[in-house]
Amino acid sequence: MKRLTLSILGLVKGSEQLIERLMFHRRRTLLALFALITLLLGWQASQIRPDASFVKMIPTEHPYVENYLNYRDDLAGLGNSVRVVVAATDGDIFTASFQETLRKVTDELFFLPGVDRSALASIWTPNVRWTEVTEEGFVGGPVIPDDYDGSPAALENLRTNILRSGQVGRLVANDFGSAIVQVPLFDRDPESGAALDYQQLSHLLETLVRQPYESDAVRIHITGFAKVVGDLIDGARDVALFFAVAFGVTLVLLYLYSGSLSGTLIPLGCSLVAVVWQLGLLRLLGYGLDPYSMLVPFLVFAIAVSHGVQVVNTVAQEAAQGADNVLAARRAFRALYIPGLTALLSDGLGFVTLMVIQIQVIQDLAIAASIGVAVIILTNLLLLPLLMSWCGVGARAIARAKRATASTRSAWALLTVFARPRGATVALLVAAGMALAGLQLSTGLKIGDLDSGAPELRKDSRYNLDNAFVTENYSTSSDVFVVMVTTAPEQCSSFATLERVDRLQHYLTNVPGVQSSLSLADVSERVTAGLNEGSLKWRSVSRNQFVINASLAYVPGGLMNTDCSLLPLIMFLDDHKAETLSRVTASVKAFAARHDSDAIQFRLAAGNSGIEAATNEVIGTAQYKMLLMVYGVVSLLCLLTFRSLRTVICIILPLALTSLLCQALMATLGIGVKVATLPVIALGVGIGVDYGIYIYTKLNSFLLQGQSLPDAYLATLRTTGKSVAFTGLTLAIGVVLWVFSPIKFQADMGILLTFMFLWNMLGALILLPALTCVLYRHSGARVRQKETSDLLS
Amino acid sequence: MPLAPNRILVLLDGGSHCREALHRAGLIAGVIDVPLDLLWFGTRPAWEGMDDALAQLHGDRTVHLLDPTASLFETLRNEWAREPYSLLVKGCDPHHGEATLTAPLDWRLLREVPAPVLLVKRIEPWAGGCVLAAINPLHDGPQQAALDESVLRAADLVATLVGAQLHTVVATAPPMLGAKAEDQLASLIAARARDATQTLCQRLALSPQQHHIGEGPAEFWISQISNDLNAALLVISTSARRGVRGALFGNTAEDILDRTATDVLVMRAGSVMTDQT
Amino acid sequence: MGFNVQGRFRRLFMLLGISTLSLPGLAADSFATEGFDRLQVPTLVSQRATQSLLLDIDTAGERLVAVGEQGVVLLSDDQGERWRQGAVPVSVLLTAVHFVDAQQGWAVGHDGTVLHSADGGASWSLQLDGNELNTLRVKQLEAELEALRLDAEAAPMVLEALEYALEDARFTQEEGPHMPLLDVWFADSQHGFVLGAYGQLLRTLDGGRSWQTLGHQLPNPDRFHLNSLLATRSGDLYIAGEAGLLLRSRDAGRTWAALESPYDGSFFAMAELDGLYLMGLRGNLFHSPDGEHWQALELDSSATLNNALAVGKTLLLLGQGGLLQAGNRAGFAPLQQPRSRQSLSAAAVAGARLIVVGEGGIQRKDMPQEGAQ
Predict the structure, then answer these.
(1) Which of A135, A541, A543, A598 to mutate to test the interface with C (most CBs of C within 10 A)?
(2) Any chain A CB within 8 A of the CB of C177?
(3) Nearest-CA distance A721 → chain B (Å)
(4) Which of A183, A689, C28, C33 could be A82's S-S partner, Cβ–Cβ 3.0 to 4.6 Å?
């Protein structure tokens, strides 16, 4: 092991010499190269587009989702769809003008791109029908007949038809005050193969449907995943605005801290360049910006700023010792090479491990974050010293640095109490207490959505108000869970199949959380009753296959597929909380375990709640898998670099505490772990490990010089510690302002990031020395002697 | 391949430090008593403005004037093939910018000429001054060790011949945070360098007046010391990177040329000078 | 309680099939592991049983017993406040229930199911199922045919009718045990009738241990469904059925005669208050003092009438779309506006309350005021 690490160190040293030589021998060429690349990638980055997809959000390797994707074509309307509610502000829907508006809205929606026209449903579409039983048998027809003319008689007829169609609570509100147009969407256009453009769809919904038709008499409400995504993409402008605010705050504070114009503009500039390169590379690789990954560019900026400030600080220190610009930059480059590279490599490799999660959005995010961090190596470890070698930090900063080293008193001396045994123990005990409290609180962490509506948007956002309207006025919830019952072809309507499905429905309706269910068995039962003059006593699946076949002569779309080998059992749930979903899936699995056979299989799952159940399962395990992998990689890299397990503990434990407390914070704030929020904590590790590595290496260098821990710690604080504290505070201040964002997702992330920035900083400044004190207490002096004697032998 | 002190080749183009180069070459030739071969190159008319200097040279020294038949470097190769020369002397160009596509002439000489190259900037005699031997004893590798040895021997030879003091100058790598302790602490690095230098000098049975150990990068420290000491001669080795590698990474010896005010003698691999006394 | 590390173990347990309180019926091995037949699988015990489709309700002494889908039988001993489920060995749709006293009762349903309870509905045993029904019909008809063939004086028409009936019974046997039974009535613990689709009528004289088929002897050549049986105070038995079928027996069910029917649509129920009431499809309601002369009564609704209950001097009508009206032949008025459109199947009186069952399960309502509305 020791030989391995030593040989790696040798490689690192050799690489550093080569790179340093190259950089400072050919400064201008390199700068021109950087400028060229920046231009190219900047041009690419300017063309990056929002790229959202329903399928990307779901775990495609999960058995439920695999089942869903297998049968997706047969399950029209049960996947991605949008509901447009046309509501009368005064009175009910039975006025000629309202019906005319509804008709126009239906037509408008029919022609939108990406709409599955055959499955579009409203009372104005011919596939919505009413039926009734008379002495002659069944009669039926479309809810809006051909001879509808808007007259009062026709409206009366319409009322009767609606009552007879069973659409009250489905396509027509319970209080008859509004009507829904159900718009199923194609993820991919079947003709052109192009992916659905959510931004365009959302835009069209606003300009072609909501704006023209809303008036004093009519209000339009729109719900559905596509609208959430569209709103998020539209909100990108607000998101970018808040990024800009954070940038501005960082700019001002950094200038006040460093006192150097070049020492402010250059690191921030290089950090921006890192973001530009990242976006450009993403575009080159064919990725777009997913609204759920909107954090990543800012994260890259934040990490870049941390490193940049360290570099500038070191350059100022070297300059204060008398070096000219070039020399100072060169020495700073060499000095920070190992810690900087270690931190960024561990960040990058740590983020790459997120690829194990089988959800494409997260895999894309892993790639974006890794690319971003890799790019930071080039912009902030190479370009930044290069630029500093021309500009220098400026006289004022050098004077400040000289003053800082000259003065003997320092406010930082207060913190040295944590480097002494007693103070360290107290700090660690407090940390342990917080860890326990955090553990306790984080058991309340919930997977999945905790509220109805879209948690990414504010409760009073347009979307959530619309969603609340739908939940209030309609009986079919928007939480749909579908069990796919598969049989041999032509067997989906056999008695054996329907009997079992009927039994499953009865069983499932008794699971708490299931509101109602619908399947081919229901159709058969009702039509059988209908064929017998509507008598309730006949509402049963007949054993006589001829009777069954007669009852299924006309089946509404979506309840079976064309070759009768798939029978969806559609359940409407009370909510899509994780407990409900796990109860439902467990129940179905128990049933399937006893009844699956060659003839009939009960497969999970489809419908937005079915897929969410799959996602919740994956996220539940993914959460811990992710943290394990990130911590594993980071620890391994630190171990290879610093060759000491105790060092790794000193660096990693404060990070672990931050992650734990962040989980507890999420639990207390009621932020559920979803695809969007899942990577946050892992990304936070990437931010924090930088601080720990910089502080540790500086502390270690003072310790090796023979200073005692409190003295070395004080010296570290006055140099590196100051930068770390500053960076942590500045970024936290910049990010806390996100709380005011109209996008709730961004506000939540703002709180979590603020917490992580601050806590990582505190952990590195307080806990790291405390751990060093405690772990090395017994062997402290001996270690140093051993190190020194090693090299003399 | 060990070189016996053969002829000395002097390159003249009538440019900067041309006279100093000729003067210096004459001094050296006088001390070690070897023929001087003068080669004119460049665009200026041959031997322009050099008549008096040339006249001073003639005496009991063998001086040949060579005709450049082909390009400079081809001529040099032909001369080497005809009869290897033990030293190449030239006046140092004032400025070697990095902005050119091809390497400056002096750099090319350092990279391609198989013999040691002396680039002259000063007119003052070396006697009584100090000769700086720039070595890198902490660098791994037998090639560097051989180069250090040849530098020391050459410096010692010159110091003995002209009556100057021998000093060594060592530029250590700046500390790297996070590396092994020996690479992290400036004090430890300096101590190691000092030990290594002393060991090397003892092995070669040399006793320099003073060792100047300092934090690099090399071109900064070495040039700083040579200017501070007002050194007469700086002896340095070069890795002679050529082509793409040379364009990318350059050579430390070349970077020093512009920073120091002293004459520079560049040793390269294979140019070990045997003990002549 | 959240979905968390601890919660995962719970989930694991659930997956292993060990039941928790929230999963209905798993503890009782209500699923056959191989082949699943609702005639052999006991009913599911569930918490939402009171919201199942319920088709009939009767009183067994002080107890209320309601039956409905998936073999659900609900019992209440406190006038409908709380309900519990009875143990039923089948999971078919039960269409009717009748108790002769506080212990003895019978329920019928689809697939030829006849269930008997001797403990007031708490537990039930299967007395007849579709297969046995088919077999006994075929055997009985074969025997009768055999006997008739040996009888030299047998009329050829009767013989032919019997052959036809036997053929029909054999066809039905091939089709499987699918016969829906739609009503049940017992005079006492020994004598009773079950009737159902395609003109089926069966009689037992020993409390359901053995049955005889009478359907072929009815004046019902088109095999119309027999929907409801009424026993009047005077001892007559009436059967109302599909397509206006109306039969009467004056000799306790041995022989039946067809009566003149006032309507050619289906009748679903009969009741007796001040005379006989006959009702059915599309709000058709008729009254007769003697069963032979019928007069149509006007209702302000055209919803199908499913059942009727005589309470004191008032007749309660229950029908599709939540129709609930009270009155007598002088007139009917809605008891209350239907709050939901769910149809009502039957009702029973429990103390001061009216228990109504139907599409939405059980509802408790206040008793109507005495007297005409």
Answers:
(1) A543
(2) yes
(3) 15
(4) A183
Chain-centroid distance, C-alpha C334: 25
When scoring C1, C3, C18 by the number of chain A Cβ atoms within 10 A, the one with the most, hence best to mutate, is C3
Interatomic CA distance for residues A68 and A75, integer angstroms:
8
Please name the residues in contact with A444: beta carbons below 8 A apart, sequence gap of 6 or more: A667, A668, C2, C4
The answer, yes or no, to whether residue C277 has pLDDT greater than 90, is: yes
Q: How many other β-carbons are positioned within 10 Å of the β-carbon of residue A390?
A: 14
A595 near C CB under 8 A: yes
- Looking at the complex, report in whole angstroms how far the Cα of residue A613 sits from the nearest Cα belonging to chain B: 47
**Does B250 lie at the interface with A, CB-CB under 8 angstroms?**
yes
What pLDDT sits at residue C301? Answer: 85
**Helices of type H across C151-198:** 156-175
**Cα separation of C146 and A285, whole Å?**
88
Matching residue, tokens 């796919």: A484
**How far apart are alpha carbons C291 and C288 in whole angstroms?**
5
Cα dihedral: A27, A32, A38, A40 (round 10):
-150
* All structural domains of chain B: 7-91 (3.40.50.620), 130-268 (3.40.50.12370)
What is the three-class DSSP state of A146?
coil
Q: Using CA atoms, how far apart are residues C108 and C112, in angstroms rounded to an integer? A: 7
Of residues A526, A517, A264, the one with CA closest to residue A388? A264
Q: Which amino acid is at A99?
A: Q
Q: C5 vs A507: CB contact, 8 Å cut-off? A: no
Overall average pLDDT of the B110-124 stretch: 89
Chain A positions touching C5 (Cβ under 8 A) are 443
Residue A226 CA to its chain's centroid (Å): 16
CB-CB neighbors (< 8 A) of C180 in chain A = 537-538, 540
Residue holding tokens 């005496």? B59
Asked whether the beta carbons of residue B180 and residue A791 sit closer than 8 angstroms, the reply is: yes
Between A156 and C33, the higher pLDDT residue: A156
Q: Do A642 and B176 touch (CB under 8 A)?
A: no
Q: Would you call B175 an interface residue with chain A, using a CB distance cutoff of 8 Å?
A: yes
| Chain C nearest-CA residue for A134 | C282
Which residues numbered 185-224 in C keep a CB inside 8 Å of some CB on A?
Answer: none
Q: pTM (2 decimals)?
A: 0.79
Chain B residues in contact with A698 by the CB 8 A cut-off are: 177
Chains that touch A (3 or more CB pairs under 8 A): B, C
Single out the residue of A252, A261, A264, A257 nearest to residue A395, CA to CA.
A261
Are the C-beta atoms of A688 and A463 separated by less than 8 Å?
no
Residue A460, pLDDT > 80, answer: yes
List the one residue out of C52, C139, C150 whose CA is nearest residue C361. C52
Q: Please count the residue pairs, one from chain A and one from chain B, whose beta carbons lie less than 8 angstroms apart.
A: 80
Q: Give the pLDDT band (50/70/90) at residue C211.
A: very high
The pLDDT of A280-284, averaged and rounded, is: 93
Interchain contact, B181 vs A788, CB within 8 Å: yes
Q: What are the beta bridge partners of residue C271?
A: C277
A18-54, pLDDT tens digit by residue? Answer: 888 888 888 888 999 999 999 999 999 998 888 888 7
Q: Name the token pair of A48.
A: 């990056």
The count of C-alpha atoms lying within 13 angstroms of the C-alpha of C256, restricted to the half-sphere facing its C-beta, is: 23
Q: Are A547 and A415 in contact (CB under 8 A)?
A: no
Q: Is A642 on the interface with B (CB under 8 A)?
A: yes
Angle at A98 between CA A93 and CA A99, to 5 degrees: 85
Angle CA(A718)–CA(A403)–CA(A330) in degrees, nearest 5?
70
Using pLDDT thresholds of 50, 70 and 90, give the confidence band for residue B274: very low
Contact A510 C25 (CB under 8 A): yes
pLDDT band per the 50, 70, 90 thresholds, residue B180: confident
